[in-house]
Amino acid sequence: MSASPFASFGTINAMPRAAETHPLTWRLRDDGAVVGLDEYRNKDGYEGARKALDMKADDIAGLVKEAGLKGRGGAGFPAGVKWSLTARGEEMPRGYVVCNADEMEPNTYKDRMLMEQLPHLLIEGMIISALANNSFRGYIFLRGEYVDAARSLEEALVEAREAGILGTHVLGSDFDFDIFLHTGAGRYICGEETALINSLEGRRANPRSKPPFPGQSGAWGKPTVVNNVETLCNAPSILANGKNWYLGLALEGSDDGGTKLFGFTGQVNNPGLWELPLGTTAREIFEDYAQGMKSGYQLKAWQPGGAGTGFLLPEHLSAQMCSNGIGEVGTRMGTGLSLAIDHTVSMVSLLRNMEEFFARESCGWCTPCRDGLPWTVRILRSLERGEGEQGDIEILEELTGKLGPGKTFCAHAPGAIEPLGSAIQYFRDEFEQGINHPKREAHGEPIPVGSV
């Protein structure tokens, strides 16, 4: 198998790694090549799945819950809780495990590395999830542009079937389960689990009304659990080593268990991807691993985890990278892959670029998202050209409320609008510079405030 492009990306493969401290990355090869089945087995592969085969479904879900594993795709919902809510009982049909491998969040690339280099880790995690959720089939919903990941996964699936790890009698047991790869057509909205399920079924990728939740009625009307790649890849080590070990990996102050793939990009000296304990401070990641800003650049702001998280200032680098730590400074950890914004970047231009993406990716199902996001784009374009009007900033602020949590059908618009609100909060003067004051005063027109 060919080497992955991540062999030279940052320092992920140059870090000291051990099974006791790096459950996600200790098996990685130094040359970045794919870890095949034989090598994976020699490195304790599928031991977690073997232990799960001897456990009851409720006990597997309970163990993952007690270990404190939260979703690693951005929402941070406890994985064990999600598994425990899946419909159970002899009268219930066997359902599906769906892996969300779409990874369309801008500035996010961690799942790609796992799928390209450690495909069997994901397969093992899906087997464990299937045992916990009484699933007979799994689907990996993969971002279509991830060609190398698709190749690695397809080869690993063939290896697993030929070895009796997938198909009938998984690992010599009475449990039957198989996994199929499905490549998506490139829609950000498929990060929402019900939109993903609709797309998987061949429907338009619109979010579904809930309830019923996927755990009761998901893909093709059967109980379905949807988890992100990194989330599922944590399950094997929890089953193999236990909850106390996993909880002990996180640092004091974190309410999450385990480790996390963190990253930093932008004008930093060492952009990369690193597996670190949850609760590690953003400053340590930025200074010790990303090695600070390049010569001639100053850190102006940063985003902790993708384009859908709020902007923070340099003084916020002291925050711990965990859900409660980032929550204390006013935003979400998201995917945990941070972006450093340097002093040469216009916040108005950056926001215009982001909101254009979010507006284009809206499914158009609900009015606030369908009409509100393009409205923000029009205003930001005017401000960027220096043709903004009095009241534009107030309209943007009002939109951040009208498109916020609980105001729209799904979480797309709240995520899209969060960076806008924080940018206005911290860099209002840059928005004010885009207002053409003389033009408005010359015509003597009133300030338009209005309502959305």
TrEMBL record:
Molecular function as annotated in GO: 4 iron, 4 sulfur cluster binding; FMN binding; metal ion binding; NAD binding; NADH dehydrogenase (ubiquinone) activity; oxidoreductase activity; quinone binding
A Pfam family that the UniProt record links to this protein: NADH_4Fe-4S
Domain NADH-ubiquinone oxidoreductase 51kDa subunit iron-sulphur binding: 348-393
Protein keywords: 4Fe-4S, Flavoprotein, FMN, Iron, Iron-sulfur, Metal-binding, NAD, Oxidoreductase, Quinone, Translocase
InterPro entries: NADH-UbQ_OxRdtase_51kDa_CS (IPR001949), NADH-UbQ_OxRdtase_suF (IPR011537), Nuo51_FMN-bd (IPR011538), Nuo51_FMN-bd_sf (IPR037225), Nuop51_4Fe4S-bd (IPR019575), Nuop51_4Fe4S-bd_sf (IPR037207)
Enzyme Commission code: 7.1.1.-
Required cofactor names: FMN; [4Fe-4S] cluster
Superkingdom of the organism of origin: Bacteria
Catalysed reactions, semicolon-separated: a quinone + NADH + 5 H(+)(in) = a quinol + NAD(+) + 4 H(+)(out)
Coiled coil: none
Subunit annotation: Composed of 13 different subunits. Subunits NuoCD, E, F, and G constitute the peripheral sector of the complex.
PANTHER family in alphabetical order: NADH-QUINONE OXIDOREDUCTASE SUBUNIT F
Family: Belongs to the complex I 51 kDa subunit family.
Protein's job: NDH-1 shuttles electrons from NADH, via FMN and iron-sulfur (Fe-S) centers, to quinones in the respiratory chain.
Protein name: NADH-quinone oxidoreductase subunit F
